[in-house]
Each structure stands twice: as C-alpha cells, then as structure tokens.
Amino acid sequence: MNLRAEGGCHCGRVRFAVIVRELAALDCNCSICTKKGFLHLIVPREDFTLLAGEGALTTYTFGTGTARHTFCATCGVQAFYTPRSHPDGVDVNVRCLDDAELRAKLVVEPFDGRDWERAAPAIQGPRR
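Given the sequence above, the corresponding structure tokens read:
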C-alpha cells in the first residue's frame, strides 16, 4: 500500500506530502508528546516532501539533542519532526494530515515514551 497524503500546520504556511505505507501510528506517553497531543507516523525521509514553509520552521531540541522538533514559527503547530528513534526519518503528526478518512483508518498503538530507553528498540529500524 502506498497512499499519498498531504498536511500542514494550522496557519497553512507549512505544507508537506507523505507516502503512507502502513496504517499504523504511535501514541507516545512521554512528557512532550502528551502535552502536544502528537500522534506519530514515522516514515523514511524519502517518503516525505516539504511542499511549503521551510523558512517558517523553527527548531526546539532538548535532552540528547538528536530529535529536532520543528514547528511553524507563526502558529506554533508541530506538523512533523526528526525523531530520536529514527534520526534519518521523519515523524509526521497524524493530526496534521488533511485526509480525515485516512486518519480514521490508522491503527494507533501505545508507546511507552516515559521509559524510552527500554521501549525504543521495539520501534527502531526501517519503517516501510
């Protein structure tokens, strides 16, 4: 399955396209994901295209600095970022996808980000 989907931030300055190969997403319970309400769709970098808004993005890092939390400097929405678990990939916020039918089809599984070091190996590796 290869579905092309588009999405973006609230104000529309940041727009992207993504190829969805699996109808699977993660709901992380770590402090930052819980506060943002981020639902994770991790894809290889080649399956992600930034369509607009490169200049509108700003970045936040913490902890190891591996994850690069990009967000729109205008509206503050984090539509995607570079995850610590897949530093060569892109983690798309399912809630920022335009297609409500696709969002409804995704199977959301819990991920114990509060115990990241123990839980991360289960999701690391190629996502295809």
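Residues 16 and 50 are 4 Å apart (CA to CA). Try to locate this feature in the token string yourself.
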